[in-house]
Amino acid sequence: MRLPRINTNWIAAGILLGAFVISAVRYYLISGSTSDLSEDGGSVIRVSHWQLEPGFREALQWAIDEYNDLPHVKQSGIQVVQMPITGKVYNQFMNVHLISGTAPDIAVQGGRIAEGNALAKFYAPLGTYTSEPNPYNSSAYQVDDLDPALAEFLEQAPWSETFFDGLHGGYNMLLGDYYGIPVCTFGGARIFYNLSILAEVKAFARGQVEHAPQASWLKALWRDESNPEGYLPECEGIAWLAHDAIPQTLGELIFYSYAVQAYAESSGHSYLVPIAASNYSLNDLASAYQILFFSQFWEKASMEMGLPPSNLEYLAAYQRGDWDFDDPALKSYFEIAALLSQFYPYGFLGLDREQAQRRFVLGQAAMIYTGAWDAPGIFSGAKYRDNPEDVFEIKVAPPPTPAPGERWAEYITMRRSEANSKGAVPFAINKSTPHFEECLDFLKFISSHRINEGMSTRSGWLPVIVGAQAPDNVAAFTPIVEGMPARLSMNLSNAGVPPIIRNAWTANYKLYISGDISYEELAKRIDTVLNNPRYGIEHAWTTILQQEIDQSRANTRTISVERLNALLGSDEAAQRERAITYYNLLKDEGVQIRHWWQKDNPDVPLSEY
Q: pLDDT grade, residue 286 (50/70/90)?
């Protein structure tokens, strides 16, 4: 008997229909409110973020528990819960739920749909409330033995002024209002040193310098008239070995890195490398020096003196011949980048951030370069080893600069400034929440002096509130305010550079530091892209001009909406209208870009799409 033939299209349609029904039911269950009911019938306020590093969730949970335990919170029936989400899907999650109206009540700003003008559509402006004192900074909530002057300031100052950056980390320039409340400070990136390895390598190196004749790797390090390619004078290198200090200069750091390699080879430690690196950009120690080398060009590039040059101004400077790949400062940076990459693990571009940290805490790397957000995991991993003999102490310090007489001292005359550091992890309030006042109260609570200091102690992250004390092991990440501002440095790998140029720069940089291409080949490849009339700098002028035009027109539409809201009685909308109008007048559909073009090309019209 022949069985009836089954149409597989109907099976697919059935699966699709079933998925739709499940999705619809799920949406129905959670729609209508961004908050569910708690077990005792009260309302739940959900706080979402993507900070899954060790310590942060525990610190936030402590703050949430402290808040939920307050008498007036218990009486209100409100319960705050956190909702951590991996960063890999956070933006997509927020996009979907912001559109559907089911996003968490409080969330770290995320989702591309909430960037720029759209921020005001989904998140509530908070400027009206930041000029008032934070009630949770009153004497009833302060820590014991607080300095009287600080206690008085915290109690009386406007909420915004209790943040070390004046709440700049939560301010949106385009909208002219505060949309986020930061809860920590990232600070600067630092080098972590394994002090056990440091002691072993120094002992090994002392034997090497006393041996006659010295090894070839050692003789190549010493910088003198006969060896200008060396890195530091021999007397200074030998003097550094006499004590237990970490490298204090760039020359000593390079000496130490070479010594680690030689020690690993002689002792059979095949997995030991000087620096634990990965494809995570902040693990690349060379990036710490890029700003210092690339700040040599800003005066030539700037077409509006008094303002830091834009990406387009640096590209225009290349067109004018104000810099090229034969420039000594540019070549020197790539030299140091290639040198430092020799101290990274083999195949480091195929490793991720967690693998680099794991290598360091397992004692298979002498150093790692990263930020304060990774510090809790690194300190914990080094302290709680399975074998007590594997435990080691860590020293944290900024990347050192060259001393006089060392190589590259003429280009690196100061540190990179971190004075532009701002409050980080800004929590924003969803406009759709039915519990705005409660959400605002919670943000005031976690940004009070006592709670922010307590979160810092538990998370191992820097606090954001004035006077809050940081844990001893992360105090080294406190921003360094002296030095070269990052905004004065050329950076052709940032998001504002047209994609083809940016990709050519970053891809060939990676090929160069991994040893796959020479500097000459890198220069040739990037030159070819920059000079291409279809997608090079000429195209960048047109692309960036069109972006300015599009942004101006989007701003104009937003101004119209805010004008209507202002006429309907919204003071916040009137304030945003003024801020956007002022910003739009400065841009005015690319008037500045047209002006720059005419300066360099007075007889040539600027192409447009």
A: very high
